[in-house]
Each structure stands twice: as structure tokens, then as C-alpha cells.
Amino acid sequence: MSPHLISPTTKPRVPHFSSGPCAKRPGWSVSKLEKACVGRSHRSEAGKARIKEVIERSRTILGVPADYRLGIVPASDTGAVEMALWSLLGKLPVDILAWESFGLEWVKDVVDELKLPDLNVLKAPYGSLPNLYQVDFSHDVVFLWNGTTSGVRVPNGDWIKDDRQGLTICDATSAVFAMEIPWEKLDVVTYSWQKVLGGEAQHGVIVLSPRAVERLESYQPTWPIPKLFRLVQKDKLIEGIFKGDTINTPSMLCVEDALDGLLWTENIGGLPSLIRRSEANLATIARWVEQSHWVAFLAQKPETCSCTSICLKIVDDWFTSLSPEKQAESAKKLAKLLEKQEVAFDIASYRAAPPGIRIWGGATVETADIEALLPWLDWAYATLKQE
């Protein structure tokens, strides 16, 4: 009998490897929300103070420049991205980069909804990046820092020009708090608490550079802007959004949960510690992949391999000989085998991505749990082949 058919004896202590919402921070429990300002107006002195504390602690931990604004907005990262697209685009031509499903969603917004006429779409297949040096920085540029559904990230910000004329608008939801973000290279950054902090969903964060604020106050798009996307009133930035006055009513339980994640971050050493934890998870998987006969990273180049949404493809001859439909079915079965054993929940690849495995390696995931998971992946694949 193959040794991989004998199930391992050690299971991950926390089997939560979903890429969103993601694992809660180590030691989390519902009791951590007992001080939430529930039953009170979010505009009360107490409620506003909690929201403002999240804003200020986020700014400090992330090292956001003092002249950048950071605010909490509706509808998770999606809402924050669309707020930026609807409010800022249209003045200049646009270069938009897409190499996975969420990037393609932003392309759809710009092409089908905003119908911008002067548009350059730079695409790449799953596993690759577009040619970053083809980007024209006299244009506005829209891109992801990390492709959550492909596990491919930009390696750094060196390709972004300091003397750019256009704005850089970056969806960084699965990168912020796990990767170095060169703020001076970016004019808009969006993210949500549900990724690296392991927070609850439905709330987004938008960060604006002074250049982005200047655009907002000097340019009015030709299309109507829904109330939930409005950042400007009478040609002036609504500063209250960045001081705790949210556009709509936030969940104070979610605010408290975000604050708990930020306090945990501070207690373990801040942003450098979060980055180290996430990179350690990637390194652990990389060592296993190097020895594996059946799996490889979806990312084609090591320097673009994500340390949060770690995407793997199955390269074994048995699997690759199957039809595309059978491959998709088999990959789902593999994930179900692991779920049934309560070893790993929600690690099937994203529905639009190539069939395989997606393991969240963000900072709230313990490396010991990653180490315990890997033998189970071998067991699940060996079991799948025997069915």
C-alpha cells in the first residue's frame, strides 16, 4: 500500500484555510467582542470613537503617509474599488491590468458600465502577469497588487513611475497587512478587513493620496454617482468619511472585530511580524511543492507567487489526462475529502480559475497548521486516484 493512502495522525488545530472570509487571528473568540458599541448610534461619541480608533490604528500599523486619507466605506473591497472607479476615472485615458477574475470584473465595470472610450486593457492568463513595463503612466492605471484567485502578485512597485501624470488605483485587498505596499507609488488603495486581519465582511477601506484628492475636487465625471460612492460634496472632499463619519451605518460588531485584529497585530510586533508570518507559510508550502510529484504553483515565476492566496495546480499525468470537466470534478472531490476529515475547509480553487487547490497563507494562519495540512493533501490526492 502506498504510504500516502495511510491517513496522517496529526490534523491542523485550525482547519480554516479559506481565502475569504479568512481565518480569525489565533486566540480569537466571540468574547473579544463584548465591548462592542452595540445598541448605540454609530454617530454617538462612543460609536464614532471606536470607528476613528480603527482608522488611526490602521494608518499607524500600515505606515500610511500623514497626508493620505484612510476611511471606512460600504460594501467591502468591491465597494471601495467601485467607489474609486466611478468617482475618479474619465478625465484621462485608462490602462487596466487583469490576470484573474477580480481584475476582469474591474475591466467589465470600466468597459460595460462606465463605457470609457480611451482604454487599454492588458491581460494575462492565470499564472502570469501582463507586461508591467507596457503600462503608460500618462494614463490612469487600475490593477490588483495580488490576484486572490490566481495566487499571482506584482513583485514590487519598481515598475510604477514616480513622475506619473495619471493616478494609480490599486485593489490590494489580499495584500495589505501581508506584503510591503509602497504608498508613494499608489494614489488609491482599497482593501477589506476580511482578508489578512481575518475580520468580518461588508466593510471596505479606501486610502487616497493628495493627488487623488485633488482629482476628486477638480473633476466631475459625466455619469451619475450613487450616494454610496460619493466622496465629494460641493467640490470638496467629505473629510468626515476619514474621521469616523461613515457614509452609511456600519456594524459596530464588525468594527470591534477589526479593532481586535489591529490590537493583536500591535501585540505581536506590527506589520513586519504579519509579513514574516505570511511569508513563512508560503515558504513551508514551497518546500513541500519542491518535493511533490503531483502539484505545482499556479504562479509561473517564484517572485510573483502570493504569500496569502497560495494557488496550486495539479500536474500529475493521471489528472492532466482527464477532460476539463473531469479535472474540475476531481479537484472538487479532493477538497471535499479534506473537508469531510475536518482537515481543511474551503480550499478548492476559485470557480473561474484552473482546477486545483487554494490555501490561504495570511498572517492569521499558524505555520504549524500549514505543516499539518500538507501530508493530508498527499493523502487526499492518493485516495482520489484510487477511487
Note the run of SSEs as H and E: HEHEHEEEEEEEHEEHHEEHHEH
Number of helices: 9
In the CATH classification, which architecture of the largest domain applies? 3-Layer(aba) Sandwich
Shape: globular
CATH topology of the largest domain: Aspartate Aminotransferase, domain 2
Low-confidence spans: none
Topology:
Layout: H1 45-62, E1 69-74, H2 76-88, E2 94-98, H3 101-113, E3 119-123, E4 140-144, E5 146-147, E6 152-153, E7 168-171, E8 188-192, E9 203-208, H4 210-218, E10 232-233, E11 236-237, H5 252-267, H6 271-291, E12 295-297, E13 309-314, H7 317-320, H8 324-340, E14 356-360, H9 367-386
Parallel strand pairs: 2-3, 2-4, 4-7, 7-8
Antiparallel strand pairs: 1-9, 5-6, 8-9, 10-11, 12-13, 13-14
Helix pairs in contact: 1-5, 6-9, 8-9
Q: Could you characterize what this model shows?
A:
The protein has 387 residues and is an alpha/beta fold. The protein folds into two domains: 14-25 and 271-386, Aspartate Aminotransferase, domain 1; 30-267, Aspartate Aminotransferase, domain 2. 34% of the residues lie in helices and 15% in strands. It is built from nine helices and 14 strands. It has helices spanning 45-62, 76-88, 101-113, 210-218, 252-267, 271-291, 317-320, 324-340, 367-386, and strands spanning 69-74, 94-98, 119-123, 140-144, 146-147, 152-153, 168-171, 188-192, 203-208, 232-233, 236-237, 295-297, 309-314, 356-360. The strands form four sheets. It has a seven-stranded mixed sheet, sandwiched between helices. β5 (146-147) and β6 (152-153) form a beta hairpin. α1 (45-62) runs parallel beside α5 (252-267), α6 packs parallel to α9 (367-386) and α8 (324-340) packs across α9. The longest helix has 21 residues, at 271-291.
